[in-house]
């Protein structure tokens, strides 16, 4: 049996981080994923898919993902149900992610300021992927082929 989903889309809001009574981190967010076709008016429509992450991945997502950021999610589809306050059965469909990739660096995280040595420096507020789109300075002598 196989239950595997890969999605690429943009966050519709900042992730919401909570902790279970046992102290396990859980983050939820919604990913807007474009459909591969246009409607009769020529506009693209999107599906809004609920994503759940757990433990360390949940804390990483809460710290680095923001509304509008392009993100890839890999995980499994989960359908659960519960009884609400009115006694009605509610069904929830969500993706439980086990891998999340940040596909673009946040420009709002960059700040210029004065370093301790008196020179200008650029800080990236704890974002390890801030320079992902930057070109790499490498000479042809360093290439193995």
Automatic annotation (TrEMBL):
The keyword DNA damage applies. GO terms for molecular function: single-stranded DNA binding. Keywords: DNA damage, DNA recombination, DNA repair, DNA replication, DNA-binding. Signal peptide: none annotated. A motif (Important for interaction with partner proteins) lies at residues 140-145. It holds the Pfam family SSB. Residues 134-145 have a biased composition (Acidic residues). GO terms for cellular component: nucleoid. Residues 107-145 are annotated as: Disordered. SUPFAM superfamilies: Nucleic acid-binding proteins. Homotetramer. Plays an important role in DNA replication, recombination and repair. Binds to ssDNA and to an array of partner proteins to recruit them to their sites of action during DNA metabolism. PANTHER family: SINGLE-STRANDED DNA-BINDING PROTEIN. This is Single-stranded DNA-binding protein. The gene is ssb.
């Amino acid at each position: 049996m196989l239950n595997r989903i890969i999605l690429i889309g943009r966050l519709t809001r900042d992730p919401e981080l909570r902790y279970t009574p046992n102290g396990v981190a859980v983050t939820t967010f919604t990913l807007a994923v474009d459909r591969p076709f246009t409607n009769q008016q020529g506009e693209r429509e999107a599906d809004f898919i609920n994503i759940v992450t757990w433990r360390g991945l949940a804390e990483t997502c809460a710290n680095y993902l923001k509304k509008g950021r392009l993100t890839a999610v890999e995980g499994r589809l989960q359908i659960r149900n519960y009884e609400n306050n009115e006694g009605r059965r509610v069904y929830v469909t969500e993706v439980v992610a086990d891998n999340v990739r940040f596909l673009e660096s946040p420009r709002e995280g960059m700040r210029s300021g004065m370093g301790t040595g008196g020179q200008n420096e650029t800080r990236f507020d704890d974002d390890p992927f801030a320079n992902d789109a930057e070109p790499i300075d490498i000479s042809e002598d360093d290439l193995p082929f």
